[in-house]
Structure formats: structure tokens, C-alpha cells
Design goal:
Length: about 450
């Protein structure tokens, strides 16, 4: 990314990227909240949290979230904006549980009219009461026409005020921004006790009132419902000629009193009908994304002679497949609805259906693969048969071996044995060196 920004073709000549790294312990997983607290001193303004694995459609742009955030934080004191996307539930008849936890939708409560996220059902909530959905009366009193849905997933895209980091510092025990902090951040907007405790932190004294006043008197702003009702009442009251001649003040009674910030969490809801969106944060979703994009492309043979010569004329490759450069496909190999990475070798009469094969993999003659994900440098032996399997990088499948719905990993004892062999080889080399020196 840095090279692109600094290149002549870049459209951002003045943009500077300050890349910071965080040394994560191998024994302890670190959540987004921990990272934000760690780098909070370097974040001096409003900020955006973006995942590296969210794939949105063209209809869902970051600009949509930013515009909503800018408008609502200025006008009514909103503190954050997030995005949830509609996703279908995983079909348990075709997925493999051995690949890991199945992706699940998150039950949320939101106000569609104002685009406000009100409640997120967390894993802790489900553990406490899995049969009932508990909501506070203060929420329903403030938003009487809320909607409850379990058709959405969190995109992990958050646009936040800088003050949110100060509140996060106060909640030092929170680690997950999705399962802990955002659900907590929704509550001060309708819980009076939390508003009194964290209101000054989430919305410190600033120029928000003057900015809101400017927006309110702009030509693009629609007056609030109570303002329209009051104006209607005035229109029906008898007014003498002296009152008619008075020029109306740009500052009305409502501006003379500081408006209490809403502390809302804005919500952008993306429907599946507007485009396919998904996070590739698990193996199931990763495979679904690859299959989706395969349906949007049509495979054609390489145009350059070097790569064209690597594809045998008798190989059968369907149009809904993708083949990386420098990949060799030998005689009578069959590839359907699959993604093949770079520098791979597909042997004679090998059959590959609905698979994702990463770079530098070798599939021997007569091997059969269906619905698999192969890590880089995986080797599949002659006439091996794999169905709905995923392999760790550098895994080797023996010739004639069969596996179904498994997660094939290099065992710890194998790695330990390899390291011991390397140590013994090093010791032998040291001894031979000493003998030579004598």
C-alpha cells in the first residue's frame, strides 16, 4: 500500500501512511479494544475501524457511512456509526463443522426511521437467558417502533468520535469491540444512569451546539416535527401589524438552550438485494466468497505463449474457474468451479470440483478433490481422494489416502520431531567442524 501511495499513478500525493505494529502474544488473543487502547495516544481525531476481510458490493461504499456520521454527529450529538449486512443462514447440510464455528447472524434491535442501533444481543446475553429477549422499558419508551431482526451480521466497520476512546479507556476490561464494546455503547442513549455517568466523557463540551445551529438554519435541513407544529399554531393566532413587521431572528427559543446530545449509535443496514456482502473471517465464508466471484467471471486461456504452453490441450477447464499464472495443468485434468493459485501443478486425470487451491500446490495424477480448501505448498499424492477437507500449509496427503469432512493439520509431534532432527543435524555439523579443525 505504501508503494502505491508513493507511486506516480497514485491519486493521493499528499497522503501519508504511518504504519504501527503490535506484538501479539502467542498465548493470548488480543481484541480490537485492546489495540485501540494501546494506540489511543496516537489517535487525535475521529477515527474509522476497518477490517481487512470485509468484502462489500459497489452499492455499499464507505462514503455512505462517513456522510451519515458527519451529519448526525454535528446535528444531534451521535457518537458512532456502524454497518450491518444481511446474510443468509448457513446450510448445515452442506457445511463442515470440523472447519470451525459456523458463521451466525446477530439479533439486533434498531430504529429504521432514524437509522439507530439500539441493542445487540451478545453471547453473554444468550448465556444468561437463551429463551427470552430482554429489553429495557426506557428503550421502548424512546423508540416505540423498533425492529427486531436476526438476519444481519456485523461488518466490523465503525466510524467513531474521538471521545469514544476515552470511554473505552474507562472500560479497561472490555476486549472485543463487536461482542462487548458496541453493545455497551448503545445503552447510554436511553439509560439515564449511564448517560449521567458517561455523558461528559462521550460528549465533552465543544462547538457541537454552534455547528448544530448552523446546520439547523441551513437550506438543506428540514425542521423538526415540534418546530412545524409550533409554526402552525402561530399561523392561526391573531397577530397585529406591529408583530408582522418584526424581522424573525435566526436564533429561536430552542437555540437559546443547549440541546442534550443524543449519544446515538447510527446504523447503516445493507440488504442482500442491494448486492452480495460477506466477511471472510472463517473458512465457510471464505469458500462462499470465492464461489460467488467465480460466478461473476469467465475463464479464458492465457494469451501469452509462456503460460499458454502450461495448459494441456486435452485439459478440461470450465468457464466458472480461475487459474493463476505459471500453473501447469496436465493432460485430461478436469477443473470445475474452482480457484487455482499461482505456480501449481495439476497432474494427469486429476479431478477438481468446487475447490480453492492456494499457491505452490501439487496435485498428483488421478487425485480427486471436491469442496476443499488447500493451504499453500500442499501436496496431494497419486489417486488420493479428498472431500470437503481443508489442509494446513505444507501438508502432504499420501498416495491413495481418502479423507472426508476433515481439517488436515501438521501434528505437533511431527513438528517437534522435525525440529529435533534439525538440532541433531546442527550438532553433527558442529562436531564435524571441530574434527576438521583438529
Amino acid at each position: 500500500m505504501s508503494n502505491y501511495i508513493q507511486s506516480d499513478s497514485s491519486s493521493f500525493p499528499t497522503l501519508r501512511i504511518d504504519l504501527q505494529t503490535y506484538e501479539e502474544s502467542q498465548d493470548l488473543a488480543v481484541g480490537t479494544c485492546t489495540l485501540l487502547r494501546h494506540f489511543s495516544s496516537r489517535i487525535q481525531s475521529d477515527f474509522v475501524v476497518l477490517p481487512c476481510d470485509f468484502v462489500p458490493p459497489p452499492a455499499l461504499s464507505l462514503t455512505q457511512l462517513l456522510n451519515k456520521f458527519r451529519t448526525e454527529t454535528t446535528y444531534d450529538g451521535s457518537i458512532a456509526t456502524t454497518c450491518f449486512y444481511e446474510a443468509s443462514r448457513a446450510d448445515k447440510s452442506i457445511v463442515t463443522e470440523e472447519w470451525g464455528i459456523l458463521p451466525t447472524n446477530v439479533p439486533i434491535v434498531y430504529d429504521e426511521r432514524s437509522g439507530t442501533l439500539l441493542h445487540v444481543d451478545t453471547p453473554d446475553d444468550a448465556d444468561k437467558n437463551n429463551e427470552e429477549f430482554e429489553l429495557r422499558m426506557s428503550l421502548l419508551a424512546k423508540y416505540p417502533r423498533t425492529k427486531l431482526s436476526s438476519s444481519f451480521r456485523d461488518s466490523h466497520v465503525y466510524v467513531c468520535k474521538r471521545a469514544v476512546l476515552d470511554a473505552l479507556t474507562e472500560k479497561a476490561h472490555l476486549d472485543s469491540i463487536r461482542d462487548e464494546f458496541i453493545p455497551w455503547l448503545c445503552k447510554p442513549q436511553y439509560q439515564q444512569t449511564r448517560r449521567e455517568k458517561y455523558g461528559n466523557i462521550l460528549s465533552p463540551v465543544s462547538n457541537n451546539v454552534s455547528q448544530g445551529m448552523a446546520l439547523k438554519h441551513s437550506t438543506l435541513h428540514l425542521p423538526a416535527k415540534n418546530d412545524r407544529l409550533r409554526q402552525s399554531e402561530l399561523d392561526h393566532e391573531p397577530v397585529d401589524e406591529h408583530m408582522r413587521s418584526i424581522v424573525p431572528s435566526p436564533v429561536d427559543d430552542s437555540d437559546e438552550h443547549a440541546v442534550e446530545p443524543s449519544l446515538r449509535v447510527g446504523l447503516v443496514v445493507h440488504r442482500a438485494s442491494s448486492g452480495f456482502a460477506l466477511r471472510a473471517n472463517n473458512l465457510h465464508s471464505y469458500l462462499d466468497l470465492n464461489r460467488f466471484f467465480l460466478g461473476q467471471t469467465t475463464y479464458t486461456l492465457p494469451s501469452d505463449p509462456e503460460n499458454r504452453s502450461l495448459i494441456d490441450q486435452k485439459a478440461q477447464i470450465s468457464g466458472d474457474s480461475m487459474i493463476g499464472r505459471s500453473t501447469k495443468v496436465e493432460e485430461r485434468a478436469s477443473i470445475k468451479r474452482s480457484v487455482i493459485g499461482k505456480h501449481c501443478v495439476i497432474g494427469k486425470m486429476a479431478k477438481i470440483v468446487g475447490c480453492v487451491i492456494l499457491d505452490h500446490c501439487v496435485i498428483a495424477d488421478g487425485a480427486r478433490l471436491e469442496g476443499c480448501i488447500l493451504g499453500a505448498y500442499t501436496k496431494v499424492g497419486t489417486k488420493a481422494d479428498l472431500s470437503r477437507c481443508v489442509t494446513q500449509p505444507s501438508y502432504e496427503v499420501a498416495a491413495g489416502e481418502s479423507a472426508k469432512a476433515e481439517k488436515l493439520e501438521i501434528s505437533d509431534w511431527t513438528a517437534h520431531e522435525t525440529s529435533e532432527d534439525q538440532d541433531s543435524d546442527d550438532d553433527d555439523d558442529d562436531e564435524s567442524t571441530e574434527d576438521d579443525s583438529d
